[in-house]
Amino acid sequence: MKPKILVISISDDLTEKAKNISRELKIPLTIYQGGIMKDGHKYAKKMEENFDVIISQGGTAQAIRETVNIPVVSIVISIADFLDALLKAKEYGNKIALMSYKTEELDDLEKFKEVLDIDFKIFPYANSSELKNQIKNIKKEEKITLVNMGSCICNLAAQNQINSVLIKSSKKSIKQAIISANNIIELGRREKERAERLKAIVDHSVEGIIAIDENGIITTLNPVAKKILDISSDDIIGTSISNFKSKFGFNIYEDNSIQMGKVININDIPVIINKILINVDNNQVGSIITIAEISKLQKLEQKVRNNLYNKGLIAKYSFSNIIGSSIAIKKTVEQAMQFGKTSTTVLIQGETGSGKELFAQSIHNISPRRKGPFVAINCAALPENLLESELFGYEEGAFTGAKKGGKLGLFELAHKGTIFLDEIGEIPLSLQSRLLRVLQEKEVMRIGGDCVLNVDVRIIAATNLDLYRMVAEKKFREDLYFRINVLNLKIPPLRERREDIPFLVKNFIELMNNKHETSIDNITQEGMNSLKKYDWPGNIRELENFIEKMVILSNISVVNKDFIEQLLEEHIPNRNSGLLTSDNIEDILIIKKGSLKDMEIQIINAMNKEIKDNKALLAEKLGISRSTLWKKLKEK
């Protein structure tokens, strides 16, 4: 924005110098030449709306200052300029008349007589009429020289046969006046920007803002405050804050203390009131009152959380992504869809790779919380200290290496949504108590924090372990177990839904073709039968990885049994342990992974059923003595 400066020049010399300095400083000027005699002050008044600052000199500057409402900068007459004019006037004679505008500085001019040892008589004027009269008075004096500051006065003197000398301002004084005018404009622009910025902040704040001075008089009231206080008129500005005691329910201005977080009702709206003091040089000059509607703060908090959720904390899968037509999977999906209609805690049990997170995301996406975040964490993937900070967050400086500003915990991120705790059986006992508190009290405290944060989350937990047995072994808290095991969903392993394998294989072939730009069409029926005979201990995840390998390595569009058998030979370290055939199917025993003691018990129970509770034969098959078998049966 270019500065708008008007120069009211009173002489040809001033006009020429101002033009040269304007070009030198690259500060644009509008110059009008005409002092009081040519109504320069009236022109300034007429044009003031078009300019930011006016520059002039002497009596003209003073006359302009008395009539306009914008800043006026006077070009300073230096002692050197004044003295130079007096000395030139003395060349005409010892009698000197000084024409000066009426100001309080006339007494100071009188003092120059003694200092300079030059005698001169001052003729003051306030307008053009008085100036003309003073010229007549000067004319009565014999052999007198007129010293003045404007060309129009010199012209008038010449018309009356009076010698005159013009006081010329130095280039330095004119330059300083232009720079000062430009600085005033720049300062005004910055102040205006600051005021507009402050006004924008106040007017668009989500909180009501009331500014009051040291006497309790309201100076500012933003639209939100008007709405909360139910005030439609601006007449409140300039009135006392004490008039609104009934609105606040207490005298907000009863003392000079700071008030923070006071919860009250205004017009049946729950709000939080804060009052802060404004101090200048240790003196209180006013205060600011803020009023925040609690409901809007909650919505704003949710909006902030949603912005975080949009960074990836979403559930991508739904029940349409669960592939299979077996009775086992259909029943599981049907039960899961019932669970999805509620916000109750769910415990999903299933072997590794069976699709526990797929079901968790699907449940979330049909639940009342589907518009909220879905936050997932594998509890077995992190050491205890990291798991705690991820779940509950931490404050700045809580521990060495803590991020500046602290960190939100996953429970905070999952507010109004779902948190999926995969492998929950791996959570250390020390953290289980904190997790239980979240479930019971719906609140968390960050590491290093001193305040409790309310959270509203649904917990979906998943495990491939026998949590009930872990409770009996004191490895999992009983109270936590019953808290998370409200709704129980068991995912069938792939070996219990072998009829779904062809559908899964077809889907994986399509996915891998797109991923690796291959063109595998299908698998022969014999090849598919080989896949169906294998138990897939890694379940769907293992099958997906196998199909990806097959798609990459196959050089034919329809994969046959021989290629499948070859890949299975490489895939299974000991083929007889996984691939079922008509020759070995009776010799295979399937047990779940666990502790050595757990697996021993599974083997004993399974073989005991096969030989129909014949303890002697059972001991023989196991290769142990009867007494050893008896001890192991007692340990069950």
What distinguishing features does this structure have?
single chain, alpha/beta, Rossmann fold, Beta-Lactamase, five-stranded antiparallel β-sheet, five-stranded parallel β-sheet, 17% strand, PAS_fold, AAA_lid_NorR, sequence-specific DNA binding, DNA-binding
Describe the model:
The protein is of the alpha/beta class and 636 residues long. It folds into five domains: 5-185, 3-Layer(aba) Sandwich (Rossmann fold), CATH 3.40.50.10660; 205-297, Beta-Lactamase (2-Layer Sandwich); 319-481, P-loop containing nucleotide triphosphate hydrolases (Rossmann fold); 494-585, Helicase, Ruva Protein, domain 3; 596-635, Orthogonal Bundle (Arc Repressor Mutant, subunit A). Helices cover 44% and strands 17% of the residues. It contains 25 helices and 22 strands. The protein has a five-stranded antiparallel sheet. α2 (40-47) runs parallel beside α3 (58-65) and α20 (525-533) packs parallel to α22. The radius of gyration is 47 Å and the shape is elongated. The model is unreliable at 574-585 (pLDDT under 50).
CATH architecture group name of the largest domain: 3-Layer(aba) Sandwich
Gyration radius, in Å: 47 Å
Extended strand count: 22
Averaged pLDDT, please? 83
Q: How many alpha or pi helices?
A: 25
Q: How many domains is the backbone divided into?
A: 5
Describe the global form. Answer: elongated
Give the amount of beta strand, in percent: 15-25%
Strand order of the largest sheet: 10-9-13-12-11
* pLDDT < 50 runs, ≥5 residues: 574-585
Distance between the termini: 90 Å
- Which structural class is indicated by helix and strand composition? alpha/beta
Oligomer: single chain
